[in-house]
Amino acid sequence: MKTSLLAAALALASATLQAAGPVVEMYKSPSCGCCHKWAEHMQKAGFTVKMHDVEDVGAVRAKYGMPDALGACHTARVGTYTIEGHVPATDIKRLLREKPRAVGLSAPGMPPASPGMDLAGYGDFDTLLVGRGGQATRYARHTLESARKLD
Description:
By secondary structure, this protein is an alpha/beta fold.
């Protein structure tokens, strides 16, 4: 009886850990409100988000190799990648599947149609793949509708 209870508990714990998805370590200014909305978008997509308030997001960005010119309001880490700003969850899932040699992804500035901003009526925006030398190329093009997709 004890063995079956232990096995059931371990199975449940394992399923819970698998369902939690990849961990996103997010570094943001204590006064930023839109960052929480992006974190909600990521959680709905299956990620586990751990938020850290920092006084200097730029220092975190530099530490993880993201050029300041591609900066936004928050910097996150997922695995070995740096995610800058309001990058859609679909792009991060693709990045984790494809595993390119790169610093990570950026949605520079705060695109109004990006997840967490969600301002309808604004134009499309790009997610950029940032190479190890700091060069950026288009990784994905988004509209408000495509940015909200989770899979």
